[in-house]
C-alpha cells in the first residue's frame, strides 16, 4: 500500500471529480488487492479526505494519522462498497469522518491546538456535532430511499446524488421526460413523508 499520510501533490492537482465510474472501477480492483489501483485511488481522493478530516480535528498530525487509518480501512473494506447506496467518494469520506470523530472523542477535553496552527487551518467547516447530525440524516435518507420502488430508488439517486439531468434519466429509463418528472415528484413526496415520520 502507498504511504497514506499527507496527500501527495498528484492528489492536489488531480481533477476535483475523478469520475464515479473510474473510482468504482478502482475500488473493484482494490477489493481484489490490486496495489496499483489502491495507489491510483489514493492519488485521486486523498486531498478531499484529508480536508474533511482536518476540518474536524484541526491538527495536521492527528489528521495525517487518521487519513492513514482511513485508507487502511478502505483497503480492507473495499469489497463491501455498494455503488447503489452511495458514490465512491461519499463512502470514503464517511469512513474518514467517522474515524476523525472517534479520534476527536479520544482527545483530552482540555486539548487545544496552538493559535498559530489554528490560524493555518482551512476555512471554518462543520463542527464534529454537525458532522454527526449530517451522517445521521444521511442514514435516515438511505433508509427512506429503501422504501421506494427499485426503479424510483435508482432514479432519485442518479438525479440528486449523482446530478443526472431529466433528459439523461429519460434516456436511461426509456421514459418520456414528463414521466420522469412525475416519478421524481412522487418519490420526493414519499421521501419527505418518510423523513418527517
Written account of the structure:
The structure is a single chain. This protein has helices spanning 9-13, 20-31, 35-57, 60-77, 88-106, 115-120, 128-145, 150-161, 166-173, 177-196. By secondary structure, the protein is mostly helical. Mean pLDDT is 77; it is low at 8-18 and 110-125. Helix 2 (20-31) crosses helix 3 (35-57), helix 5 crosses helix 7 (128-145) and helix 9 (166-173) packs across helix 10. It contains 10 helices and no strands. The protein is globular, with a radius of gyration of 19 Å. Residues 111-133 are annotated as: Disordered.
CATH architectural name of the largest domain: Orthogonal Bundle
CATH topology of the largest domain: Rna Polymerase Sigma Factor, Chain: A
What is the count of helical runs? 10
Tell me the name of the CATH homologous superfamily of the largest domain: RNA polymerase sigma factor, region 2, helix turn helix motif
Spans of 5+ residues with little confidence (pLDDT < 50)? 8-18, 110-125
CATH level 1 name of the largest domain: Mainly Alpha
InterPro entries: RNA_pol_sigma-70-like, RNA_pol_sigma-70_dom, RNA_pol_sigma70_r2, RNA_pol_sigma70_r4_t2, RNA_pol_sigma_r2, RNA_pol_sigma_r3/r4-like, WH-like_DNA-bd_sf
GO molecular function: DNA binding; sigma factor activity
Domain RNA polymerase sigma factor 70 region 4 type: 139-191
Keywords: Sigma factor, Transcription, Transcription regulation
Amino acid at each position: 500500500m502507498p504511504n497514506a499520510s499527507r496527500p501527495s501533490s498528484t492528489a492536489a492537482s488531480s481533477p476535483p471529480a475523478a469520475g464515479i465510474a473510474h473510482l468504482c472501477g478502482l475500488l473493484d480492483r482494490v477489493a481484489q488487492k490490486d496495489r496499483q489501483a489502491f495507489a491510483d485511488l489514493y492519488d485521486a481522493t486523498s486531498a478531499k479526505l484529508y480536508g474533511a478530516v482536518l476540518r474536524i480535528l484541526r491538527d495536521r498530525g492527528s489528521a495525517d494519522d487518521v487519513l492513514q487509518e482511513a485508507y487502511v480501512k478502505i483497503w480492507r473494506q473495499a469489497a463491501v462498497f455498494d455503488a447503489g447506496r452511495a458514490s465512491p467518494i461519499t463512502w470514503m469520506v464517511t469512513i474518514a469522518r467517522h474515524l476523525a470523530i472517534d479520534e476527536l472523542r479520544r482527545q483530552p477535553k482540555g486539548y487545544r491546538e496552538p493559535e498559530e496552527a489554528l490560524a493555518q487551518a482551512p476555512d471554518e467547516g462543520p463542527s464534529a456535532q454537525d458532522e454527526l447530525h449530517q451522517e445521521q440524516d444521511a442514514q435516515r435518507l438511505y433508509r427512506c430511499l429503501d422504501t421506494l420502488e427499485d426503479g424510483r430508488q435508482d432514479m432519485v439517486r442518479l438525479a440528486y446524488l449523482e446530478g443526472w439531468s431529466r433528459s439523461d434519466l429519460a434516456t436511461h429509463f426509456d421514459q418520456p421526460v414528463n414521466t420522469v418528472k412525475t416519478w421524481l415528484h412522487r418519490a420526493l413526496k414519499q421521501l419527505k413523508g418518510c423523513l418527517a415520520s
